[in-house]
Each structure stands twice: as C-alpha cells, then as structure tokens.
Amino acid sequence: MRSIEERDRVRSRLGAVTGGREPEVVADLDDAERTPEWLDLGPEPRGRSSWLPERLRGARFDPGRPGAVTLALVGVVVVVIVGVVFLLERPQQNAVPALPAVSASVSASPVETSTPPAPAMIVVSVVGLVHTNGLVRLPEGSRIADAITAAGGAQEGADLLSLNMAQRLMDGDQVLVGVASTDGGPPVLGSGTVSSGTAAAPGPASRGKVNLNSATEEELDALPGVGPVTAAAIVAWRSVNGRFTDVEQLGEVEGIGPARLAKLRELVTI
C-alpha cells in the first residue's frame, strides 16, 4: 500500500541521516496522522470548565485599563441610582403630637352620702281615760289617734266621740280623754284638746276635773267607777282627815283600789 511505502521511505531517509541508527518512534504514524501533536488537548477538563464551550475554556477576560475604568463608573452609577430609589421609597415618619399629661392624683375629699333627714318630733300630753297618762313623743304631723295609741289606748268608758281623731297635733298640745255617759246621755266629763299657749278646749259637755276637797257626793258619784257608796266614803274620809293634799290619797278611801284609782287620777284635782 502507498502509506506503507511512504513510511519505509521515511525510515530509510532517517537512517541515512542518523548514520544507520533506527530513529525512535514515539507513536504509530497512523496515530500521528490521525492526531497531530498541535491538536493534543491534554487531560479532560474537570469542574466548572467541563460545562464551558471548548473555545472558551482556555480564554481569559482582560478588559484592559479603559474597560476597568468604564466598569467602575457603571458600578458607581448603579449604586447612586439604588440609593436614590431607596430614599424615595422610604416611608415618611410623621411626628405624632404628644398627648396631654393626665394627672394621677385622686381627690381625697370624702363622698357625701345623701341621707334623708330624721323627721322632726313633737311632745304631746295625753291624760284621762288612757292606760298610760303622761307625755308621748310623736313624729311631726301626727294626729290625736296616734297620741292615744302611744299612750296605751283608751280605757273602757272613755269618751272618744267628742274627739276628732284625725286632728293634727302640734308640739306642746294636750289630749284629754273624758268619761262617757253610762245611760246614753251627754258625757260625764267631755273629751277635748288643749293647744299649746291657749286655754283648754274641752267638749261641750266637759265639766273639768272634780275637786276632791269641794265636790259634793252627787258630783263624786258622777265620776266613772264611783257609786253612791264610794262617794259617801270619800266625803267621810275628808271629814275625818281634812283636805286632800294629794290625789294618791284616794287609795286610802275604802272601796277604791289601784285599778279604780288609776281611772280617777286624771279626773280629779285638789
């Protein structure tokens, strides 16, 4: 073949040049023809160079001095633009006005509690045929019925018809509960009221209190619970002992016990 002949011819020439020595063959000529030495790419690239195009694997970027200056200027411009955009897009902080200070001091003044005033009181005298003779304290605006109730109520035989039970009382008034008639006639001792600062205002049939020292047997007999016998005993006691100096001395008269004395105590005088 032609290629073999050319190879033999080259060997003969080389032998003549080298003085008959066999030249060193580095590789098969067929391989040399197929792969020239100047196309030897060396070892297979590894790492990042493996994915680069073959024409760029050995290339190096060198912009030179003018290119470096240009790149620096471009970088400065980019930084300035980014800074301006950041400043413009930054939210503005509006100053909030300070709130007025609130005083934390608590008023130490005591809280006034509205309590209804106590009702005014009046003092009224209740005498006569009531269970408890004397002074009673009543709220202002009370009536005669309230005064008699406060005195324990009226006793049996009391003259209540002569009293206006709804009459209002004033401070210092007196209520006199008289003796009713036993035969349906006018009361023996009429009831009435005595206003403070005025004269007595008994009922129309009122005869006033009976004087133990000057009353006759008939007048004494007209008293409630006193019959002819007791009236005569009172006159007899007076004849023996003289004038009565105290109404309580009626208890010494025969036939007058504590119950009868209690009824007569406010109906007689000395």
From TrEMBL:
One of its GO terms (molecular function) is DNA binding. Keywords: DNA-binding, Membrane, Transmembrane, Transmembrane helix. Residues 195-206 have a biased composition (Low complexity). GO terms for biological process: DNA repair; protein secretion by the type II secretion system. The chain crosses the membrane at residues 67-88. It comes from Antrihabitans stalactiti. Residues 218-237, 248-267 form the Helix-hairpin-helix DNA-binding motif class domain. Residues 1-11, 32-45 have a biased composition (Basic and acidic residues). This is ComEA family DNA-binding protein. NCBIfam families: competence protein ComEA helix-hairpin-helix repeat region. Residues 1-45, 189-209 are annotated as: Disordered. The keyword DNA-binding applies. The keyword Acetylation does not apply. InterPro entries: Competence_ComEA_HhH, Endo/Exo/Phosphatase_dom_1, Hlx-hairpin-Hlx_DNA-bd_motif, RuvA_2-like, Soluble_ligand-bd.
